[in-house]
Amino acid sequence: MSAPGLKDRELAERLLGRHAPQQGVNQVARQLASAGQLVRRNRSDGRIGNYPGNGAQRTVPVLASPIVQQPGAFLSEDDAKRKLDGWLERAGWKVSVVLGRGHGIDMRRVAEIPAGLSR
After folding, report:
1. Among 95, 76, 75, 77, which residue's Cα sits nearest to residue 85?
2. Distance between CA atoms of residues 15 and 40, nearest Å
3. pTM
4. Which of 62, 37, 63, 58 is nearest to 114 (CA)?
């Protein structure tokens, strides 16, 4: 199952669990969009959807169960990056992530892992 054009709220729920804060997902999505790795545009319902960048038609499977997040627990930006990194890598993407006060693009697609090859 693929899920193109997910809203930030939908991504936060799928990655972090129901009622998880979406601000970290929004920040990372904006940074990926500014780097050309993600396209953010209005969907048919008028809400902003997130689509693969560079014209790629890559589909990402939907998680069977979201990552468990304790109600009311704070999710830092680095935590959001780690969770998103793991999710993208499980979907076949190779991602470079800068954590903390590191310089450069926070998340960047390095390459796709060819089908049939394991890391």
Report:
1. 95
2. 18
3. 0.47
4. 58
